[in-house]
Amino acid sequence: xxxxxxxxxxxxxxxxxxxxxxxxxxxxxxxxxxxxxxxxxxxxxxxxxxxxxxxxxxxxxxxxxxxxxxxxxxxxxxxxxxxxxxxxxxxxxxxxxxxxxxxxxxxxxxxxxxxxxxxxxxxxxxxxxxxxxxxxxxxxxxxxxxxxxxxxxxxxxxxxxxxxxxxxxxxxxxxxxxxxxxxxxxxxxxxxxxxxxxxxxxxxxx
Length: 206
Hints:
This protein has ten helices and ten strands. With 206 residues, the chain is α/β, with parallel strands linked by helices. It has a domain at 71-204. The strands form two sheets. It has an eight-stranded parallel β-barrel.
């Protein structure tokens, strides 16, 4: 089973998660996010990237802002997939020409959004499971397009009660539950979560 941790903003947490062979990390560029990572910090982390897939989180930003970030990254932009956590129009997403992922919602023109060639990954929030679990059209498009599907949890506490399946890909937000003070991650607690044991057992078929 793969796990993506969302909202990393410091080198210590990056190294802790790399030790756990994490499959994916995201970095939050939303201006109002408590997990906002300054651009210069992000640039300093990039040389430390290893085997994991990387995402840049955006929400309700203008195309110009997004393109400016990509231009500032230069060739390093190819190390990231964009991630959108918003309800923008089909035309907005159609104007994105960099690989991106999207948090699914039925509040938008989702059928057409799912057909966009730059869309590679769909995140399914556990909070809205009833919106998509029996949505036949959604699953048909996902299958036809071979889109990656990742189930998203808001917290590690929620994942502790999740039934693990080695075929699932999971995502979790790095929130205040893991902090010992403001923007200070408790590295020992993060490193010793029971979720790592559950993931190992799931992957090994135990």
